[in-house]
Specification:
- It is built from eight helices and 20 strands.
- It is an alpha+beta fold.
- The chain folds into two domains: about 5-230, P-loop containing nucleotide triphosphate hydrolases (Rossmann fold), CATH 3.40.50.300; about 235-350, Beta Barrel (OB fold (Dihydrolipoamide Acetyltransferase, E2P)), CATH 2.40.50.
- The chain starts with a strand and ends in a 9-residue tail after the last strand.
- The structure holds adenosine-5'-triphosphate (ATP) and magnesium ion.
- The site of adenosine-5'-triphosphate (ATP) has 11 residues, from strand 2 and helix 1.
Length: about 350
């Protein structure tokens, strides 16, 4: 069992506040992914959980037990870093078994445990090699082996795949998911890779400047971002944001007049008054070509053909709108296209960037 509870955690280095009151709950066996811009405090949070840094304020509970003062090696938590730093003079087997060796575990048991871990990670053939004779992916697997041989109840990964090339990342991603199911450990995984976050996570925690911007299942973050930060952070190309004014003339449909000239209809039950300033979030994949009377006309300024899909950049360069359309559309630069977006696909935020609830 390993349920993680962070309660109002704070951490500063000197006078710089880095973690500013973080509350996170992670269930036993859950795969949680931390994302956020560089410097937002992801690695610092992992180091606080591992015990490599001390917590200034707040409580870290593991299965209800306070961990703040517990030494790192007594927490049952293992950490895998981006720079895997294997011992170059030791073989794969010695690297994986090193922590057991330190604990003076009998050689025979070490060998058995190493064999078992190596099999899980497909390293059995490589146990006699030194790190210099391994590929990047194999080295990262050894680093993971070194972590899981301690049978941790929690494994922390800090961007473990970011040194690997694209195809190896896809392969390792699948292997890590399989491993997670096999080990039934609770996992916290830090990544900059959206696809990794969306595909691996049970729960994504989006961090911004040392605070939690939102924490939810991947699909809920995508569908119901709590603010413009999360809306534009999750999804690629990023969500378009159109500053707009609400218009509620008597009896008429509720509309948004965007500053770029677009007019969009809004839900009747929107809790916003006539004249309110709002921001409309439209994901590029929710814009489509339309022949309807109320379609929005926009001039194409850039065409990016990726084969399976085509991105059009529309409107003024100062406030570009991106549309993600079929690969074979015939649009050219300078041409006018007509677009529509379903009312239900518009995300509405107030002028502070918080999502507006529908009443
Ligand atoms: N030991 C330290 N002393 C002073 N400042 C630190 C220390 N460790 C981290 N910081 C600062 O804390 C902030 C958060 O750093 P952290 O490494 O947690 O960010 P991160 O989210 O992991 O970023 P990245 O995505 O670039 O890895 C940064 O501004 C960093 O400079
Ligand atoms: Mg980091």
């Amino acid at each position: 069992m390993a349920t993680i509870e962070l309660k109002n955690i704070r951490k500063s280095f000197g006078t710089v506040d880095v973690i500013k009151g973080v509350d996170i709950h992670i269930d036993d066996g859950e795969f949680a992914v931390f994302v956020g811009p560089s410097g937002c405090g992801k690695s610092t949070l992992l180091r606080l959980i591992a015990g490599l840094e001390s917590i200034n304020e707040g409580e870290f509970l593991l299965d209800g037990k306070r961990m703040n003062e517990i030494a790192p090696d007594k927490r049952g938590i293992a950490m895998v870093f981006q720079s895997y730093a294997l011992y170059p003079h030791m073989t794969v087997a010695q690297n994986i078994g090193f922590s057991l060796d330190l604990k003076k575990v009998p050689k025979e048991s070490i060998r058995r445990e190493v064999d078992e871990v190596a099999e899980k990670l497909q390293l059995s053939e490589l146990l006699g090699r030194r790190p210099a004779a391994l590929s990047g992916g194999q080295r990262q697997r050894v680093a993971i082996g070194r972590a899981i041989i301690k049978k941790p109840s929690v494994i922390l990964f800090d961007e473990p795949l970011s040194n690997l090339d694209a195809s190896l990342r896809v392969q390792m991603r699948a292997e890590l998911q399989r491993l997670h199911q096999e080990l039934s450990a609770t996992v916290i995984y830090v990544t900059h890779d959206q696809v990794e976050a969306m595909t691996m996570a049970d729960k994504i925690v989006v961090l911004k400047d040392g605070e939690v911007a939102q924490s939810a299942a991947p699909i809920d973050l995508y569908k119901y971002p709590a603010n413009t930060f999360v809306g534009t952070f999750i999804g690629s190309p990023r969500m378009n944001l159109l500053p707009a004014t609400v218009s509620r003339s008597n009896g008429a449909q509720v509309r948004a007049h965007a500053d770029n000239g677009w007019v969009l209809s809004l839900p009747d039950n929107l809790s916003a008054a006539d004249g309110d300033r709002i921001q409309i979030g439209i994901r590029p994949e929710h814009l489509r070509l339309s022949e309807q009377a109320d379609a929005i006309a926009a001039e194409v300024s850039v065409v990016e053909r990726l084969g399976v899909e085509t991105y059009l950049t529309l409107g003024q360069p100062s406030e570009p709108i991106i549309a993600r359309l079929d690969g074979d559309i015939s649009a050219r630069v300078g041409e006018k296209v007509h677009l529509g977006v379903a009312e239900s696909a518009c995300h509405l935020f107030d002028d502070t960037g918080s999502a507006i609830q529908h009443s």
